[in-house]
Amino acid sequence: MKSLRLALIGIGIAGLAGGAISLAIAASSDHAEDVQIGAVVFTPLIGWSFIGTGLFAWWRRPENRIGALMTAVGFVWFLASLITSDVPGLFAIGGLFSALPYALLLHMLVAFPTGRLETRWQRILVGVGYFDTTVMQVLGVLFLDTTDPDVCTSCPGNPILISDQVVASGIAYGLQALIGIFGLSGIGILLVRRWRSASSAIRSALTPVLLVGVLTAFLLGLSLIGDIAGFPDGTGEDVIDILGAAAMASVPFAFLIGLLHSRLSRATAVSELVARLGEADRRQGMRDALAEALGDPSLSLAYWVPEQGRYVDAAGHAVELPARDGSTACTPVEHEGRPVAMICHDASLDTEPELIGAVGAAASLALENERLNVELRARVEELRASRARIVQAADEERRRLERDLHDGAQQRLVSLALNLRLASSKLDKDPAAAKALLEETTAELGEATSELRELARGLHPAVLSDRGLRPALEALAGRAPVPVELGEPPAERLPPAVESASYFVVAEALTNVARYAEATHAEVSVTRANGQVEVEVSDDGIGGADPAAGSGLRGLADRVAALDGRLEVISPEGEGTVVRAVIPCG
Q1: 0.70 exceeded by the pTM?
Q2: Which domains does the chain have, with CATH numbers?
């Protein structure tokens, strides 16, 4: 920041020197007597006002380009004022730069207040402005004989004259004026639309700047029309030029007025917000208070729920923050270093970060209180949704069991009954056939028993109830298709519900490793500390797991949530997956 301050001081000194030199040149000019008073008055006024205001804006907001653009307008204006010089070289430089300040001014107005050209049409129009004031200007100067009395009285010769082609110079300047008129019309429409689409808080700051900017563009357009139409002397063209210069000189002051107005608006907004906070006892009261303070009726609030790791609305429903699309932006609010809420507002408010920061700071405590209420509603909402999912999962599980029993064990038992009847009928007539049939039935009975045992293990593994968590996890690891490194689980038995939840977290995670992860290795750890059990399963697979995409992880989250725990899935693309459950265990 110190280096920036020194640089701005240096630029300011250069601006003072440039203005003094321009003033001296204008005052001593032999060929600009008809505009000498205007040049002496407006040259330093416009240049110094742009440079001074630009340096102030640059210092206040270094990241915003408006300050640099305003400063550039002032310096280029001093270069353009060299056209009053009697020295041919300086006179030519002034002629080459005489139109460029207007392109910089229009760039600044179009980019105001963000300092950026947001849309393709903005970039096209500003690009046309620069083309018109550089390329077309150079073409006109190259063929302009400044010693011609019809062009200029007592002007020095044009040192970069290629050829005295009055027609070529006239065509170049005529095209320049036409392009300028169309460009100014487009930019005027953009500025009006910018003002109409801005929020009321931003509109109050934009109004003086855009009003003066549109007026300046309008007067410049009239001057260009006069150049094309060739108004005769005495028709007021000089008056239009003087009015245009006066409007140009007022742009920096309009910027300062807008800046001051925004600061006053900020103080008013904060005081009104503080007065309204006590009334914000309804769900939408807080949102309405902030929307009124910021002058943005589209404003919305999202509250941070740390246990769920997401934002919710005032009713406790999960919300997705809007993407930054040029029309909407979100600003975080913190209380004592912790995230509290997110204020989503019109993107134009980004130009007033102090306004949003002041409003957010004033409302942070009230937002924290509201967040606690919202967090409770979010828990109730999550509990309601979890209960519905558990009921649905139970119904689906019962249907699956019915289907598995019907298609598996039941069919085998029916087949066993038929085989036993057949063996009984052949026992006396054909003992050998009956014996073979009984052996086949015995094998079938073994398979049916295995199926029932596998089905029972899916419901609740007997080894978990009989021997505890470690043997049950060892059995899971032994059946996994990839090598599984099993950490040392707690030596003591855990509460049955915690053991069961821990087991099924590992079982589901290893199942997903086998099906989707394309992993070569997995690690399982179960630790108990500080009154809670942490279960973690990690792999070196392809990642990209989405808990919301399948019912398995969602069911696990519900099972863990039923014990007041939480489930976390970390699965960046290409970096493996970590499934972590934290379950309270007193």
Answers
A1: no
A2: 2-265 (1.20.1070), 266-381 (3.30.450), 461-586 (3.30.565.10)
